[in-house]
Amino acid sequence: MTRPVYRFAPSPNGHLHLGHALSALMNFDAARASGGRFLLRIEDIDTTRCTPELEEAIHEDLAWLGLSWETPVRRQSAHFADYRAALETLEKQGLVYPGYLTRREIRDAVVVAEARDGRPWPRDPDGGPLYPGDAAVLSAGEISARKAVAAPHALRLDMKTAIARLAAPLTWQELDHPEASSKAGTIRADPAHWGDVVLARKDTPTSYHLSVVVDDAVQGVSHVVRGRDLYQATAVHRLLQMLLGLPEPRYHHHRLIEDGEGRKLSKSQDDTALSALREEGASPRDIRRRVGLAD
Ligand code: GLU
Hints:
This protein has helices spanning about 20-35, 50-65, 80-90, 105-115, 140-150, 160-165, 210-220, 235-245, 275-280, 285-290; strands at about 5-10, 35-40, 75, 95-100, 155, 170-175, 185-190, 200, 225, 250-255.
């Protein structure tokens, strides 16, 4: 029997906090309990926000927590060619198009459309406006002019066409767990809510969705255990897996650690940073307790 493969995949664009500790510990514990493997993956595609110092701090924090992981550690910034290859596979299927609208143009188009239609513009599960399409804002001439000068653009998935290619309804398997924050079983995935997601940004040759799906496959990840904030994104990941012919991992989305006001912790909340808690004298066992895990 092949051993289960778990991973913890932080981005080195801030310090790890208690929410990351819960995720890392759950993956590590699950790997241990099942005789599986535990991998660390550094999700550093955003080379403007990720730094070597923060990456080093991740290693330190996790080692201090008592975790160990296989080496070498996969760092996404070293694998842009893999994501490019996946993008080409989707391009060959006619599912990728360049979107020339800037963030500001999208925002303005949404304001105009909302005023015109008297109803809110559709938004994705993270609250971002769905892409209105270049033609909603630019004339045909302006679109060709931007193409002609290779103006900065994102590459987007043609969501409608992609969904239409599916041979069967899209689902994923959500695992049960004592910490479960969501229903276990077969979950119907509906990526349409996300609209034409970005697959490659103008300044980054890939995106979170594309690289996470490629890497989980490359690394043979069998169990994706991550926070509830990524539950809806799983629909996009399953779609990309189907389109790219990649295996289907099983998923578990765990509860989030909230601050005193019921908000999800963020990387700017230094009082919950593991390094700050460590300096204040907390022990790894204290951290386990604080995130509600048994010793
Ligand atoms: N890199 C993502 C984050 O730090 C997690 C990706 C995942 O677990 O799928 O939020």
